[in-house]
UniProtKB/TrEMBL annotation:
Quaternary data: Homotetramer.
UniProt similarity note: Belongs to the glutaminase family.
Protein name: Glutaminase
InterPro entries: Beta-lactam/transpept-like (IPR012338), Glutaminase (IPR015868)
Alphabetic keyword roster: Acetylation, Hydrolase
Superkingdom per UniProt: Bacteria
Gene (name only): glsA
Organism of this sequence: Nocardiopsis algeriensis
Catalytic activity, EC: 3.5.1.2
Pfam families referenced in this protein's UniProt entry, alphabetically: Glutaminase
GO biological process: glutamate biosynthetic process; L-glutamine catabolic process
Record GO terms (molecular function): glutaminase activity
Catalysis: reaction(s): L-glutamine + H2O = L-glutamate + NH4(+)
Annotated residues for binding of substrate: 67, 116, 160, 167, 191, 242, 260
Length: 306
């Protein structure tokens, strides 16, 4: 069997298993603009480390990256320095991604960079490092996705700006503890806009190759060290799906990062980047069909990190 056939067979088998579940779950209507997305969409894309793409379903429709961006702001920050680990821990929180309660008694140091408070700290750092966090992130994602025109969907960003009081609370609380250094309103503006960057499923699979190749960019140059890649993927596995990270490790066994736009990025280190998109979410904010597709993938291929 050729490589081409092997990958197409995997995709067919994954799609067959996931089809009855497409449309399940609830779209993230706490951000009103995301509540308008059709839950019956579904896409699956597999990128090999050599850059070949195999895909099925709605893989060319742009969707909101949301929390998946947290991986790449982190990658940008750790490419410069490891100092961020003074400002954010790397333990699973066991709590919802926007929970406030740990943050008060842990004195403004978030549990990890892949929940909202942690990501706000990382965005604050990127803003200090570059002067333009969302612009720097958009440049990186544009280069890696193969689409030079990736953009912030300003309507979605504004929709979250209008309803984002919980993120505001997190940011002001951390500012009170001295763990936000730029003006809070500026950090929030960059955070809401970074979350609203849109990509297609195929573009996301390409972006994920940065991790699958352990820090090597699409143009062959190195962005961050192998060690940094290993650490980012460890945090992804243990914290990337919030209070469902244990469940994801149990069912899928790959580093995964979800977003409330319905995307999930998973990595088979040194082999594949996998992107799935299904806007219907479970109560913890992870795509129902997306998780099932990734579980089908590891069941079928036996490719997991365990
Ligand atoms: N889990 C997510 O994707 C959350 C991102 C979203 N922008 C929020 O802050 O609530």
């Amino acid at each position: 069997m050729s490589q081409e056939e092997y990958h197409e067979n995997i995709l067919d088998a994954v799609m067959e298993r996931v089809r009855p579940h497409i449309g399940k779950g609830h779209v993230a209507d706490y951000i009103p603009e995301l509540g308008k997305v059709d839950p019956h969409r579904f896409g699956f894309a597999l990128a090999t480390v050599d850059g070949d793409i195999h895909s099925a379903g709605d893989v060319d429709i742009p969707f909101s990256l949301q929390s998946i961006t947290k991986l790449f702001t982190l990658a940008l920050v750790v490419s410069g320095s490891d100092d961020i680990w003074q400002r954010v821990h790397r333990e699973p929180s066991g709590s919802p991604f926007n929970s406030l309660y740990q943050l008060e008694f842990e004195r403004g140091i978030p549990r990890n960079p892949l929940i909202n408070p942690g990501a706000l700290v990382v965005t604050d750092q990127l803003l200090s490092d570059t002067g333009d966090a969302v612009g720097t992130l958009c440049d990186l994602l544009s280069r890696e996705s193969g689409n030079p025109h990736l953009q912030v969907d300003e309507v979605t960003a504004h929709s979250e700006y209008l309803t984002g009081d919980r993120n505001r609370s997190l940011a002001y609380l951390m500012s009170d503890f001295g763990n936000i250094r730029n003006p809070v309103s500026e950090v929030l503006d960059h955070y809401f806009r970074q979350c609203a960057i849109t990509v297609t499923t195929v573009e996301l699979a390409r972006i994920g190759l940065l991790l699958a190749r352990h820090g090597v960019r699409a143009d062959g140059s190195r962005m961050f060290s192998r060690e940094a890649a290993r650490r980012i993927m460890a945090v992804m596995l243990t914290c990337g799906t919030y209070d469902a990270a244990g469940e994801f490790a149990f069912r899928i066994g790959l580093p995964c990062k979800s977003g409330v736009g319905g995307g999930i990025l998973a990595v088979v280190p040194a082999r594949y980047s996998l992107a799935v998109w299904g806007p219907g979410l479970d109560p913890r904010g992870n795509s129902v069909a997306g998780a099932l597709a990734l579980e089908a993938f590891t069941d079928i291929t036996h490719l997991s990190v365990f």
